[in-house]
Design goal:
The chain has 89 residues and is an all-alpha fold. The chain has four helices and no strands. The protein has one domain. The mean pLDDT is 94.
Amino acid sequence: MTTDLELRRLVERWQQLPLDQALSRMPVVRPVVQQLADAVADVEARPRVEVPDLGPRTVMDQLTVVAFDASQAGVDPAPQLERLRRDLS
């Protein structure tokens, strides 16, 4: 499955969650955002920087950005995105 399709499915699933469920799933989502950001930093030989926790309303935007960055850096985020989507089901 392509990264774009998997990301779109994940974002759609996230948008369907009531706020209380989204809040309870943040501990599952945030590590994926950070892992992808760290993978990009490693590939680009840059220091790892903590991705700020901006809450459930923006976490999918953050995920979209780091997934794009990962793809551009040659890191395939699709498997992590697929696992994350399944974890949210």
